[in-house]
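Thread: "does anyone have the structure for this chain?"

Original post by V.I.:
We have the sequence but no experimental structure in hand. Need at least a predicted one for the grant figures.
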Amino acid sequence: MLDQIPALDGDTLDHAAYHKDFARQAEDLRGVIWKLERSQVFREPRDTSWQAFMAGDWRGALELLEKDREAVRTEARQNAAKGLEIRRVRVAELPIGPYLQWELHALKLLADEGFGLTVLTADQVAPLETRARLPEVVVFGNEVLYEVQYEPDWTPCGARRITDPDVISAAATEIRALYERGEPFHDFFRREVAPLRAPAV
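Reply from O.Q.:
Generated one for you, tokens below.
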């Protein structure tokens, strides 16, 4: 049902409202937050590492990512202390494009510090995309589902908030199944990403 989510009813939140609601939901949450990421290109104008990547400074981009390691480690410890786990499924089209190469380096930092990540190729999820490509989705336990929204150039602009319990349950079940089918992140990274040369933007 994941490819049906864009056609379902939901409340539209702009960027600020989405992040405020997201923070409120995460504040006292226990259990698992499920994330599904499908697009191969995003714009991250608030991210200094992404800015360096887009400027052609690959080494600088990686150095800026590494500077975030302690903050990521702290977040992982805080999540573990309150019984919260974030599990993400990343869909990757092969061969890997420049943006995804950068993002997979950013995700490696999360995986290194204990965040749950697995990878599926686009071919592996193609049978699920009978109506449309899979959306970008975040599911908070049994509470809320966000379909993350983007401008035409893939700049984040908010989300659609869905609170139907049946939709939330079905989406979480399907993302969990994808997560369990996915390849462990570090295995995928070592084979498909580590050997790549610096990307040309």
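V.I.: this helps a lot. The radius of gyration is 17 Å.
O.Q.: and The mean pLDDT is 96.
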